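During the second half of the funding period, the structural biology subgroup turned its attention to how the target accommodates small molecules. The most pressing case was tryptophanyl-5'AMP, which had performed well in the primary screen but for which no bound structure existed. We therefore specified the complex as follows and requested a full 3D prediction, including the ligand pose.
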Amino acid sequence: METVVSGIRSTGNLHLGNYFGALKNFIKMQHENNCFFFIADYHSLTTHPTPGDLHGSVKQVLAEYLACGLDPEAATLYLQSDVPEVTELYLLLNMNAYVGELERTTSFKDKVRKQPENVNAGLLTYPVLMAADIIIHNASKVPVGKDQEQNLEMARKFARRFNNLYKVKYFTEPQPYNFGQVLIKIPGLDGTGKMGKSEGNGIYLVDDPKDIRKKVMRAVTDSGPTEMNSEMPEPIQNLFTLMDVVSEKSTIDFFKEKYANCEIRYGDLKKQLAEDIINFTSPIREKILEISANNNYLRKVANMGAEKARESASKTIKEVREIIGFKPF
Ligand code: TYM
């Protein structure tokens, strides 16, 4: 049985990228492994949410985890901030994380470009906190989307560096995971790039059908192929990538053939895609609305998860402190 850890930031509702990049794997893995799935609320502080927004988002993501089918009896579901041992490990790992390597990470450089007014140290050390999240339970597998690949590489580096520094084989080097396939990137429908909360192009699990139709109908397209069997430009490829995850194979084949024959009508393609997304999200949406109204249940789940997660984390911290040389007199 392998130990699996992963998390999602609580900066807003979950979108299709979160679901197909990560959550789908959480659900598949939860019964056969020792799974820890958390809500990364410390990480969300890099964007300075108000106290009300912070709490509301955490609650919403927990309800969404449950609505998607995460089972709190099978996996440990918890809030990152309920496990203060994570912050201790973060501090310890920071001593062996170098400013130069942190400054060179793509996501940090991205943030510096996008929010020059708020380049805080939490952003710089974001991968260190992520490594702490993962190795606090000594995980071997981390189900994530493609955009987290570099963060996982850093987590392995920090685990290896700790082992080398103290001449121990204590931490496992965690591997990113997606059911034996390559890591996934769900695109946005605004032409290029990934679907993301900060990109503002998300189709959310909780969106109502009207919003989904509106978002899909607005998707960027072009004037259509003019040569038979021509290669698809990125915005069109993106529509098909989304179809790949929500539509029947026969539907996808039908529209691919239309594209190849230059007979495609993007309006029809979008209508179909919107309906297939709605079919997928509607039952989840209903459950989200039901569960998020049930405070008692959410409290019970969070308390149970916190207890299990702390038990595992405090064992690690105790051993790490000893390895480093913090010993009682
Ligand atoms: P976050 O909250 O941005 O995204 C959560 C998960 O969803 C995946 N994801 C996507 N996958 C495919 N296509 C997309 N368009 C897409 N958008 C998001 C992400 O790859 C991720 O798996 N730093 C993390 C949260 C985190 C974490 C961790 C993850 C904190 N500590 C420890 C794993 C292990 C983040 O911001 O993900």
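Two results from this model are relevant to the next phase. The chain has two domains: 3-184+294-324, 209-289. The longest strand covers residues 3-9.
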